[in-house]
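pasting for ref
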Amino acid sequence: MATATSNIRSPSITLFGKGTVSYQRTAAPFQIPQFPLNRPRLTALFASLHDGNNKDDGSNKITKSVGLEELFEDSSYDVVSKDSPFHPRPLSSTQFSNSVSAGSRLRVAYQGVRGAYSEAAAEKAYPNCEAVPCDQFDAAFEAVEKWIVDRAVLPIENSLGGSIHRNYDLLLRHSLHIVGEVKLAVRHCLLANHGVRVEDLQRVLSHPQALAQCENTLTKLGLSREATDDTALAAKYVAFNKLKDTGAVASSSAAKIYGLNILAEDVQDNCDNVTRFLMLAREPIIPGVEKPFKTSIVFSLEEGPGVLFKGLAVFALRQINLTKIESRPLRNQPLRASDDSNNGSKYFDYLFYVDFEASMAEERAQNALRHLKEFATFLRVLGSYPVDTTML
């Protein structure tokens, strides 16, 4: 089966929105909610585990463990004036839920164009939000950091395609916090312009993961495949160019938006096709215990026998269930030679991303991270947030 290697990319415009947006914080395009200052002080504020002395020493290797005691002391949020427009206090889990149910008109960034599954995920996460499309994942992160939008909703893993490694790397590169997750059932459709039949098609366009998820169906149809940046962009391209020999794999919503005909529904090879998205914000939420919570962290360890086992044991010892572990090579870190000079082997230094089922408001989670900090060379809490128990 011939597979095209070229990519169709979205236009160079990074963000689509109303009016001219200034990147200066003094021109923030939305009203920041103010929260009362008389909340109880918490000992489990995690924010971010960056340490000011934990700098790159020129070898690109992180050598100093983060001071985790900062995690459990009163944070600088307590001294921020309620009148400051630049440093709002972190949302509590209660306020976070209320802001959604009240239908606050938040601006939420997602990667793709209208009709993308990410847009549906953003609207599920924040009903009545203003969904703001971005052409790349990087742009969505930057839009939140530069106060162009309030939140971002980005995919992190798919039940068939696995992890979205790019977003794992961006979580470490940027200083945003995970404030929630949302799971979306993905139902692919084969789309084409009106009047085009299945037998008229010679190729199909879509995101690489969508093409992989429909591989058996597309093979039976004898269609060549060509990758685009996202599924909805493929639908838009087919409609805009009035193609007669080309279809797209995208959502039924994309078909409606771009005026395409649905030739076949549920063309994915497995009906259990679910994508998990992360909800990102500039500030963390304060974790609670009134509902199931999940915590995401990233850490690195020294090389040695049983070190990773030791790192994961801090959770098992406290009956904390791990739901996800992902390893990524430490960027810009050269291969290190093995201590055994006889075999001449070399290996990567790795970062480990872990999700576990516990709130940072729980003592057992705090103790687990204190324990991990004793031998971790780097540790950062990415977020502690409510578990999504729904499915759409």
